[in-house]
Amino acid sequence: MELGMNKNTPNLFIVGAQKSATTSLYNYLKEHPNIFFSSEKEPNYFTTFFDTFPHNGPYDKRYDKNVIGSAEEYYKLFSNYSGQKYIAESSVHYLYFNGLAYKLKEESPDAKIIISLRNPIERAYSAYTYYVSRGRESESFREAIQNENHRMLNNYEVGWYYIAQGLYYQKVKDYLEVFGRENVHIVLFDEIKDDLEGTLKNIYKFLEVDPVTINNTEKKYNVSGTPKNKITKVIASPLKAKSLAKKYLPTPMANKLKDYYFKILEKNLAKTELSVSDKEYLKSVYETDIKKLSVLIEKDLNHWLE
To answer: What would be an example GO MF term here (predicted)?
Structure first.
């Protein structure tokens, strides 16, 4: 089965960036009656044309296992589509790979693209603490960013590239050029955080669908943080309760247990601050890219460098 030949080819993609409220957008937009999302939130299918498998970072085998590797598997995710205006999926690593925008255009020429961007300094540290909270990251933040090139050379999965994922300019430029500005909608993490209702209204306008009222906007998704104690470190391990539940329990029961599991985990995560020295270092890394991005997307991003 070839992509592009199926009537269920997606025509709406949330492409990233990771830790920029994409999961929240996915959960809000899937409530719209005219938007059908894949049964798997993050299939990452199109990364398989550019990424190298298997990956070699801690617990990367689990990541690899969840990537949809064939067109047949991919289309099964949309098998319950029933005529909505948009067939959608959300895979944050689609923003990272050079050339992926061209692949999406080839397979879905009329697709709409949503890109959510977060201050790359905050995004890098949030991604780091997220991996800490899930039992994957064991190094200090400074060690982790110093070792990023080593991780790339040893083919860790993209989520480990805390700095590289925040170099947005060229990736966003590709999407704007490939799909046209009229087909790409860019939102900022701060806009979602400060004015969710207005942000969603703008997205509905972009998609030319009627606005709807969203339920449960207070719920937080994929919360990051540092485990408060040893017990939290143990339950945060990807090899513990949630993986066992998925393996041995029926899906509805496993999903309920997973939600309960994350509620317990998130209550036991402490928010930590990025050190002044690490923040200043990241400012120096990102300053040029941020200034170019600001001009490109016509949004004032000076506050990202404060």
So the answer is: sulfotransferase activity
Reported for 31-35, long-range contacts at CB under 8 A and 24+ positions apart, including other chains, are: 31/212, 31/214, 31/215, 32/204, 32/209, 32/212, 33/84, 33/212, 34/84, 34/85, 34/86, 34/209, 34/210, 35/84, 35/85, 35/86, 35/88, 35/207, 35/209
Domain positions in the chain are: 12-126+167-220+287-305
pLDDT in tens, 99-145: 999 999 999 999 999 999 999 999 999 999 999 988 899 999 999 99
Q: Topology of domain 12-126+167-220+287-305, per CATH? A: Rossmann fold (3.40.50)
pLDDT digits (tens, 9 = 90+) for 288-299: 999 999 999 999
Supply the pTM of this predicted model: 0.85
According to the model, what pLDDT value does residue 1 have? 39
Q: How far, in Å, CA of 212 to CA of 194, rounded?
A: 19
